[in-house]
Amino acid sequence: MLIIDSKDCENIDKALKKYKKKFEKARILLQLRSRQSFTKPSIRRRNQVLKAVYKQQMANGKFED
């Protein structure tokens, strides 16, 4: 749960802006999207390995389209 401390003299726009920043940093939307469907741990691990291989190839300049 996100709590925003706002002062009495603070504008509602500023408080909303603070809330949006805090919402992005908490990565709540990503958690909700990932919980919509279940992915097996083996598939999750395979995706991590494939992403790491891709990043390594890009770093080495060996990736060709």
TrEMBL record:
Pfam families the UniProt entry points to = Ribosomal_S21
What are the GO BP annotations of this UniProt entry? translation
Q: Which domain of life is it from?
A: Bacteria
GO molecular function terms listed in the Swiss-Prot or TrEMBL record: structural constituent of ribosome
Listed A to Z, the keywords are: Ribonucleoprotein, Ribosomal protein
Q: Which Gene3D superfamilies match?
A: Ribosomal protein S8
Q: Which GO terms describe its cellular component?
A: ribonucleoprotein complex; ribosome
Family in the record: Belongs to the bacterial ribosomal protein bS21 family.
Q: What is this protein called?
A: Small ribosomal subunit protein bS21
Give the originating organism.
Chitinophaga agrisoli
